[in-house]
Amino acid sequence: xxxxxxxxxRIGPFTVKLPIIQGGMGVGISMSGLASAVANEGxxxxxxxxxxxxxxxxxxxxxxxxxxxxxxxxxxxxxxLSGGVVGVNIMVALSDxxxxxxxxxxxxxxxxxxxxxxxxKVPQILSPDRVREGASRxxxxxxxxxxxxxxxxSWEKAGCFPDAFVVEGPLAGGHLGFKREQISDPDHALExxxxxxxRAVRPxxxxxxxxxxxxxxxxxxxGEDIFRFLGLGASGVQMASRFVPTVECDADPxxxxxxxxxxKEDLMIIDSPVGLPGRAIRNRFLEEVGAGVKxxxxxxxxxxxxxxxxxxxxxxxxxxxxxxxxxxxxxxxxGGANAYRSERITSVHEVIQSILAEYHAAAERDVRLHRRxxxxxxxxxxxxxxxx
Length: 388
Fold this sequence. Notes:
The protein has 388 residues and is an alpha/beta fold.
């Protein structure tokens, strides 16, 4: 392979020509429209399962049924729009996690990405045989080697192993798996934790008899970023913010323009009602909440187990739904640390072409600098050196 070209990414039986997973973005930001567009370009498109039912007319009365109905519909729409690889991101902390997981597996989506908690009970929910033999491949999202090791040990006892890991660093958008003081700590930078997770995963590849790819995520925005993390041993990357200001993104145009209009200093860390820090774009809603203004609401369901909805100053699910619909006076926009770099609304195809050009330029610079071909996946990527 020409080393200035992006390598393929293989997860289980699925091989995509671009080692890019589009990050799952709720509520309703990455649905069938964005997921199918990325899949059609040769990456992995991802539907975010969280809160889809909030877009249904009967949500307040039948929230669990609404969530499952909307999720099944979006999976089927994505399938109709693309023959590529499509995944679903499900938050483990959701109160209806088990129902969403079961429904997603029944729809035989290609990948199930499991974030916002340790998915230790997944083999029991789906049964080990189904995990081993089912069409859906399972990809936990972690923020440390410790979390990866806990999952690996737990799943090994159930007789199965994850098909890949996504390692999400502190520059990601949305809820973060870090304490506030860790977000700017160099010891928790993505460049540090990716090799650590690769080392934790390596022994289990021998036990599983196959490669377990590690995918880097959080703040990855350009092809040059991709080149750098492949060089650190990642088999691929997950990108979210770069795909928001596209025509195919499922959010309202006002949501997309929040990215285009944002300045670097507008990206801020907030304390979410669910008990986690998060990265969002500053707006009047967040400034009012920061000043102590409470936004009245009634909780129709406790969507996240960790949410203190009794004392919360606002409903995060409602705020994100309003933002998805363009009602930014009553909500706010999550975004990664590089969200401010968006200049205009473009298309997924144009984004991919820009990423390819950026990657090619980074690879050529590396060749000139070192007078050699760049060595990709040297630390642990699932390539020819992995032995699987």
